[in-house]
Amino acid sequence: MSLDRPSIAVVLVEPAGPLNVGSVARLCANFGVDRLRLVAPRCDPLGEEAVRMAVHGRSLLEAASRHSCLAEALADCRRVVATSGRLDAPPLPLLPPGEALRWLLVGSAATAAAAPSAAPAAMAAPLALVFGREDRGLSNDELLQAGRLLQIGTGAAYASLNLSHAVAVVLHELHGLRSAGEATPSPAGAVRAEDPGDPATRAALEASLADAEELLLEVGFLYPHTAHARMAKVRALLQRAQIDEGEVALLRGMVRQLRWASRRGSP
Q: How many other β-carbons are positioned within 10 Å of the β-carbon of residue 209?
């Protein structure tokens, strides 16, 4: 990983097919992706079939980290793109691959140019590409852990893609953008006004949301039976805004002060 080329992690959620897992490891090697993360795999990622399909991606397969849930796999990531084939009311807008992947790549480079002292931390956070289950994709809760949702255009007659085929399409598009230098800011290090900075890590945002939910339940704004749905709307709002680490700290500080005041019984 170089300072102008942040690490990219491909994240597979509950993959069930060892052939797919092995094929994805090979694709990661093909396209220069250096991290593979597996969330609660439903097959043996190091079984004979997976290893046979990985070929020269075997080292990536063997080094793949395993996680109990998607939040754990994304905790150190700032910019996350999740893939979705759903058309029924997705929680965030669905974007074509090029648009979603440019967002994934551009922010870290813009941050590095605008604030070089912050660049090491920004570049150390992997960029994540999340792919869902072979049979049912990602849930709404999982999609809401991404900053952008990517949908691959297909023919209307049969829109479902095999997992490894979807990964191949996305990584090919990503490789083209990286090769064309679309992860770098404007010439001479200038940063365009529309270039976004990097959002907070997923771990920081989730901790802030957990604090907020606890307070809102305590003061009666949320009720246990509707809290999940209401907080999903708050999460979607913050995901659209893509708030940064300082803004997350501000929100968390406000929540903690409000909790202190409510428990003390004074304004």
A: 18
User: Which residue in this structure is represented by tokens 């200038």?
Assistant: 190
Nearest to 209 by CA among 190, 228, 186, 226: 228
For the domain spanning 202-264, the CATH number is 1.10.8
Summarised one tens digit per residue, pLDDT across range 114-138 is 445 455 555 578 999 999 999 999 9
The average pLDDT across 4-25 equals 93
Q: Which amino acid is at 130?
A: V
CA 84/CA 81 separation, integer angstroms:
10
> Taking 50 as the threshold, does the pLDDT of residue 1 lie above it?
no
pTM for the predicted model, two decimal places: 0.83
What's the CATH superfamily of 8-189?
SPOUT methyltransferase, trefoil knot domain (3.40.1280.10)
Per-residue buried b or exposed e for 112-132, using 16+ beta carbons within 10 Å of the residue's own CB? bbeeeeebeebbebbbbbbbb
Residue-range domain boundaries for the chain? 8-189, 202-264
Compute the residue count for the chain: 267
Q: For residue 184, give the nearest of 192, 146, 241, 148 by alpha carbon.
A: 192
- Compute the distance between CA of residue 222 and CA of residue 28 in angstroms, rounded to an integer: 43
What the block records as the tokens of 206 is 């989730």
The pLDDT score that the predictor gives to residue 123 is 59
Q: Do domains 8-189 and 202-264 have the same CATH topology?
A: no
Answer whether residue 242 shows pLDDT above 80.
yes
Lowest mean pLDDT among 39-43, 107-111, 164-168: 107-111
- Whole-number CA gyration radius for the chain: 20
pLDDT tens digits, one per residue of 203-236? 999 999 999 999 999 999 999 999 999 999 998 8
